[in-house]
């Protein structure tokens, strides 16, 4: 179930005039999500999974509220810092690029996984990339941010989108204004010329096409929050089985693999069950660059008989918190429950 106004795109827009008309009509009523189908996160093999530990920009998931995303002109674009600050500031694109240069002490360079709050358990609205830019805290502190504890930082975008985070989250050194993705300028679909990256929170807080950063007093509810989605947004711990795909016929030694993610808390353990959850065994974890990214996991399994097997995965985050086994839909707080697939042994 999704609230009015939800629109999803993963390079799956309808093609042709009929599709465009349908999408436009749906958008008028805020129902463009009905025209799109989500899928599972799948890698063709363990090798492909490791090859794409950092998601290519062309394959990075895309979610938008728009039928047509804004095409921002870098020459006229400005980013303003305003509201409850002592000295409001404005940056043009070259100035923000300069602040994002590796020679600047406030330069930020992080690999961060993003996940959409609308992602189903095992879903493909999750991707991992390298982001470079400037620390949001540096921009706010340079402008003389009000020290009050109940300050929220509001992000306004070129398409009218808004999102907000509490002061403490904004001042976290991992929260950045990003201008590069995987070593290249942001694509239009990913928020050119600048977007927010706020590790630990679902993707709806990572505002794209950023034009204004404003400090306000008290909690602020952004675009999706006004439609019923959570304003807390902490990412739930999840383990996804990404290879083999659901329903695959297998024989002999089976190489299972996937990703586990817990926002900014890291992953300490992934367990796999090959008997529908009756027994569990630890998977092998690939070292991650930080607690801000997904962790790749593998598990080798040799079935002892033919038949149908339900494979289940679960994770424990870096603080010792276990994944929630209770199934829940994405709306309003993000999905939960263990991911599972069925494999057929010949």
Task: Give a nutshell description of this structure.
The protein has 346 residues and is mainly β.
Question: What would you note in describing this structure?
Answer:
There is one protein chain. The chain is mainly β. It folds into three domains: 37 residues, no CATH class; 171 residues, Oxidoreductase, molybdopterin-binding domain (Sulfite Oxidase, Chain A, domain 2), CATH 3.90.420; 108 residues, Immunoglobulin-like (Sandwich), CATH 2.60.40.650. The chain contains five helices and 21 strands. The protein has a five-stranded mixed sheet. Strands 5, 6, 9, 10 and 11 form a five-stranded antiparallel sheet that branches. It has a five-stranded mixed sheet with strand order 14-21-20-16-17, with no helix packed on it. The protein is elongated, with a radius of gyration of 21 Å. The two termini are 37 Å apart. The N terminus is likely disordered.
Itemize the secondary structure elements and their pairings.
Blueprint: E1 8-9, H1 17-28, H2 46-51, E2 62-63, E3 78-83, E4 89-92, H3 93-99, E5 107-115, E6 126-135, H4 136-142, E7 151-157, E8 162-166, H5 167-171, E9 176-181, E10 184-185, E11 195-197, E12 210-217, E13 238-243, E14 249-250, E15 254-261, E16 267-273, E17 281-282, E18 284-285, E19 295-301, E20 307-317, E21 339-345
Parallel strand pairs: 3-12, 14-21
Antiparallel strand pairs: 1-2, 3-4, 5-6, 6-9, 7-8, 7-12, 9-10, 9-11, 13-15, 15-19, 16-17, 16-20, 18-19, 20-21
Mean pLDDT: 92
The number of domains is 3
Number of strands: 21
- Top CATH class of the largest domain: Alpha Beta
**Residue windows where pLDDT falls under 50 for at least 5 positions:** 1-7, 9-37
């Amino acid at each position: 179930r999704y609230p009015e106004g939800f629109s999803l795109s993963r390079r799956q827009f309808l093609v042709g005039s009929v599709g465009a008309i349908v999408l436009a009509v749906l958008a008028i009523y805020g129902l463009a999500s009905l025209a799109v189908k989500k899928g599972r996160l799948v890698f063709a093999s363990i090798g492909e999974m490791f090859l794409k530990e950092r998601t290519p920009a062309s394959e990075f998931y895309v979610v938008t509220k728009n039928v047509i995303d804004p095409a921002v002109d870098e020459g006229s674009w400005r980013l303003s810092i305003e509201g409850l600050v002592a000295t409001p500031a404005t940056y043009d694109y070259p100035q923000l690029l300069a602040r994002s240069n590796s020679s600047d002490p406030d330069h930020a360079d992080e690999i961060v996984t993003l996940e959409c709050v609308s992602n189903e358990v095992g879903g493909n609205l999750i991707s991992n990339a390298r982001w470079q830019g400037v620390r949001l805290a540096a921009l706010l502190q340079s402008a003389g941010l009000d020290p009050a504890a109940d300050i929220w930082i509001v992000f306004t975008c070129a398409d009218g989108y808004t999102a907000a985070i509490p002061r403490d989250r904004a001042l976290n050194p991992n929260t950045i204004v990003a201008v590069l993705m995987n070593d290249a300028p942001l694509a239009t679909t990913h928020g050119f010329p600048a977007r927010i990256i706020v590790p630990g929170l679902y993707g709806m807080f990572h505002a794209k096409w950023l034009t204004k950063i404003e400090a306000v007093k008290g909690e602020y509810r952004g675009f999706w929050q006004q439609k019923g989605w959570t304003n807390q947004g902490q990412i739930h711990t999840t383990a996804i089985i990404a290879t083999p795909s659901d329903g695959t016929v297998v024989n002999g030694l089976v190489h299972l693999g996937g990703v586990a993610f817990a926002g900014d808390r890291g992953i300490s353990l992934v367990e796999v069950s090959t008997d529908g959850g009756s027994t569990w065994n630890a998977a092998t974890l690939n070292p991650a660059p930080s607690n801000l990214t997904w962790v790749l996991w593998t598990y080798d399994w040799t079935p002892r008989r033919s038949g149908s097997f339900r494979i289940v995965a679960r994770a424990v985050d870096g603080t010792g918190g276990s994944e929630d086994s209770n199934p829940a839909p994405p709306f309003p707080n993000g999905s939960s429950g263990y991911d599972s697939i069925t494999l057929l042994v010949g």
